[in-house]
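User: Before I run my own analysis I want an independent prediction to cross-check against. Here's the chain; please return only the structure tokens and, at the end, one sentence I can use as a sanity check.
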Amino acid sequence: MHAKVGDRLHVHAKVVGQADRMGQILEVHGSAGEPPYLVRFEDGHTCLVFPGPDAVVEHPTAARSR
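Assistant: Structure tokens:
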């Protein structure tokens, strides 16, 4: 998983009926874009995230080209 500042982190829900979480990556603490990431989620909560297999990095340029 590789990200840069400004990318979005999409964490898929683990339980049926639970909402996915989306947030903007504010800082990348790993080398070469690797985790951990400082993320501000849509609810305003900011935390350091070590994404698991349920998370996907969405690059803004990829979203625009669709």
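Sanity check: The two ends are 21 Å apart (CA to CA).
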